[in-house]
């Protein structure tokens, strides 16, 4: 009748229809899809190993007044612009470091001739001796920052102080020149976060299989992203801040996007839908939200290039690539794993998911 809306269901959106067909195809070829992703991970890891790339701590901002000032300082005062190392001399118990003044002075003077060294500071001249006289601190300044020092430079400096060690002193080297690259040492926090996420998801779903699925798929996606980033570092300049950024965002959106599809899939299974139909339907519905959300994040991160700062541009592109991989994992690998899991993901009768679905089914229409 004219003037009344058509009660028949409308044709699904183009994206939803495409993802539905993709989900159905992936479910049928689930083992092949899993093997393809594992092959992609292996290929990326192989490229990363052969590329032998390294990350750089380059925080320069070309064209800015601050960068021009830093460049001027580096040109006119190289000792102040480069990396520095601290050398600690510790005398044996019951003795003072002043008793070893000759060997300390000679080794510090020899350090001034080591590769890339601009200047040194003798602890007795600079007054950097502890109150009890057992410890002395010498400083070694390099001409370049740590990322520009050739391989073997720091090892050569350590060898200079062998005579002091032979004389009975304990010699330790440290400082900015020996600092770890950005992002190292953070694996513990990510591991703790994953453990907390596993516990929360296990309580929410009441199933370890359902809780582990988004974590495993997210980890595989992050592994592919980081391996690919390491391979790119072999041919392009990649800042050391890019891998941690890709890791954090890749894990976050990887778990989130997989949960979108998994939650819809379990809800449909609780309603009695077959596994194959549910995997395709969840990919077509929840997967559509995943694709649009992921593309929005990718565009926003790529927009960092507009600022014109190489560091932010590289970080944005690295994170955008990790998010894009997470989207691809969500709409391909996740449906494949749903198919492999089969009815093991179906909520048990009487479980929270089953009760929720039953409650929604009893609601009056309209």
UniProtKB/TrEMBL annotation:
Could you tell me which residues belong to the region Disordered? 347-366
Task: Show the ranges annotated as biased composition (Basic and acidic residues).
Answer: 354-366
One matching Pfam family: MMPL
Source domain of life: Bacteria
Keywords attached to this Swiss-Prot or TrEMBL record, sorted alphabetically, are: Cell membrane, Membrane, Transmembrane, Transmembrane helix
Where does the record locate the signal sequence feature?
Answer: none
Q: Where found, per UniProt?
A: Cell membrane
Domain spans labelled SSD: 192-340
> What membrane topology does the UniProt entry give?
Multi-pass membrane protein
GO CC terms, sorted: plasma membrane
Annotated TM spans: 191-211, 218-238, 244-263, 284-311, 317-342
InterPro entries of this UniProt entry? MMPL_dom, Mycobact_MmpL, SSD
Q: Which family does it belong to?
A: Belongs to the resistance-nodulation-cell division (RND) (TC 2.A.6) family. MmpL subfamily.
The name on file for this protein is Transporter
Q: What is the native source organism of this protein?
A: Actinophytocola xanthii
